[in-house]
Specification:
Blueprint: H1 3-35, H2 45-58, E1 67-68, E2 84-89, E3 94-99, H3 111-124, H4 162-171, H5 175-186, H6 189-202, H7 224-237, H8 240-246, E4 250-253, E5 284-287, E6 299-307, E7 311-320, E8 323-332, H9 337-358, E9 359-362, E10 371-376, E11 382-387, E12 394-397, H10 404-409, E13 412-416, E14 421-422, E15 432-440, E16 443-452, H11 461-466, H12 468-478
Parallel strand pairs: 1-3, 10-14
Antiparallel strand pairs: 2-3, 2-8, 4-5, 6-7, 7-8, 9-12, 10-11, 11-16, 13-15, 15-16
Length: 479
């Protein structure tokens, strides 16, 4: 063997030794980092956009406010007199039953749900408060309302707060209150209607449009599905409104403190036989227009509506234990209010009692969170697997147990995800690698995919090779 050959062999051996040491050090460092459970950096805006785009394309209904039940059911056959109807689970957004729910119908005074939604937004933003005294423009006086309007009986120079107007808006379905709130919130009706329609557009409601805030006009439009969407968002964001306004059985207005100073202490009897005067000084007690309050167990809202063009409408909600349902019935029959209320009560009771008899909410959401998972063969060593859906509750069918709630309590949550992910080909944001399943009596009711929260490029060949020991260790742990 020549000196040159010997030199080459020695050099080659040195290179191999260096490579071996480098490989061992790199593999060791990579393994140590994996044991440290180091969370990856927060997603950048670009990464968030990439993730949301991927998820929206793969799971197009993931952000829907209302959605079908996540398991197969036989559609119920219910005796509903209203021309159109829908009932949903408020927590999950699942639709339990529907009948011609996409018909475009004037909402009538259910319009006032949208009014309250906008006003509550202004209160939450700090622009106005419940205790604000509202100046009453002449267009909000009861004497200037259209014929046959529902009224809370606002009058000239009265002293009234935002809270009292919201109460009169709901309990009495006061058109005058709707005008007063529109003026106070946005300066005038036109600007308030722009705001209402803008908010409906933000919610994705394509058929819900308003031309005035009271619901008197037949040119206001919605569908049962869209009204249920709005109502769900409203009571979810502002649950306090149910107790404060929608569940009140009656309201007396004006009271002594509402009168102009010069009218206080005077006799309160007034003669309305020739029409309403500008100044109303007699307290008038009205029952809540929702006839199911106090009659249907758990009922605490929401809003009625009627004009000739719509028929008798009702957005209704009730809760029992931890479950709340919301129904919307529109185009209900009736030749007068007595008949209209009769059918609204019948339909509302049928929908609610059927729902409570067949479903209950499971709120086991402890497992619905991001999972930190190690990655081998990629440039980043850690990734989060995130749930595709924002889980609040699962509507559980009464298929086992002694009651719907018993069935809901017996739901098992099964989480499945890999010990590690091989990233030798790279990882794409939105790729599923695991799941969270809700199982009852051996039946999978809902599956929530767990997907990669970011894209990670594959590492070079040397790094991929250096991660082989880590893969062997991680695989052994899995066993």
């Amino acid at each position: 063997m020549t000196k040159r050959t010997t030199c080459i062999i020695r050099s080659f051996a040195v290179v191999l030794m260096i490579l071996a040491v480098s490989y061992s050090v790199t593999a060791g460092i990579r393994l140590i980092r994996l044991k440290q459970h180091k969370s990856p950096a927060e997603l950048t805006k670009i990464q968030e956009q990439e993730l949301n785009k991927s998820l929206d394309e793969t799971y197009p209904g993931r952000s829907n406010i209302l959605k079908p039940l996540p398991y197969a059911v036989i559609p119920a056959k219910l005796d509903i007199q209203a021309g159109s109807a829908i009932i949903i689970d408020v927590a999950s957004g699942s639709i339990l039953y529907e009948k011609k729910a996409d018909r475009i119908i004037p909402p009538a005074s259910m319009t006032k749900i949208a009014v309250m939604y906008v006003v509550m937004q202004e209160i939450k933003a700090g622009h106005i408060s419940l205790t604000d005294i509202v100046p009453l423009k002449s267009d909000s006086w009861a004497c200037n309302m259209p014929p046959h309007s529902s009224l809370m009986f606002l009058g000239k120079d009265q002293v009234v707060t935002v809270e009292e107007l919201l109460t009169g808006l709901d309990v009495c379905s006061g058109n005058d209150a709707a005008y007063a709130l529109a003026d106070y919130t946005c300066g005038n009706m036109d600007e308030f209607i722009k705001r209402m329609n803008s908010e409906m557009q933000k919610l994705g409601l394509t058929h819900t449009r308003f031309v005035e805030s009271s619901g008197y006009s037949e040119k206001n439009t919605t569908t049962p599905r869209e009204m249920a969407t709005l109502a769900r968002i409203y009571i979810t964001k502002y649950p306090e409104a149910l107790e404060k306004f929608h569940s009140r059985l009656s309201f007396t207005y004006p009271q002594e403190h509402n009168l102009a100073p010069e009218d206080r202490g005077k006799p309160t009897a007034q003669d309305f036989s020739h029409g309403l005067p500008e100044r109303i000084t007699m307290g008038i007690t009205q029952q809540n227009t929702n006839a199911l309050l106090g009659k249907l167990a758990g009922c605490d809202g929401l809003k009625t509506g009627y004009i000739d063009e719509s028929g008798y409408n009702l957005a209704l909600t009730a809760h029992r234990n931890s479950t709340r349902f919301l129904s919307v019935t529109m185009n209900g029959p009736g030749h007068n209010k007595i008949e209209g209320d009769k059918f609204r009560i019948q339909d509302g009771t049928t929908l609610m009692e059927w729902s409570f008899a067949h479903f209950a909410d499971c709120r086991k959401n402890e497992a619905v969170h991001p999972y930190l998972i190690p990655v081998t063969g990629a440039k980043s060593q850690w990734i989060y697997l995130i749930p595709v859906y924002n889980f609040t509750a699962l509507t559980v069918p009464f298929i086992t147990g002694k009651s719907p709630q018993d069935a809901a309590d017996n739901v098992r949550v099964v989480v499945d995800f890999p010990r590690y992910i091989k990233g030798k080909e790279g990882i794409s944001a939105g790729t599923p690698y695991g799941s969270i399943q809700y199982v009852l009596d051996g039946k999978i009711l809902q599956t929530i995919p767990l997907t990669a929260d970011r894209t990670i490029k594959k590492a070079g060949a040397f790094i991929r090779a250096a991660d082989i020991p880590a893969e062997m260790i991680l695989s052994a742990k899995k066993q």
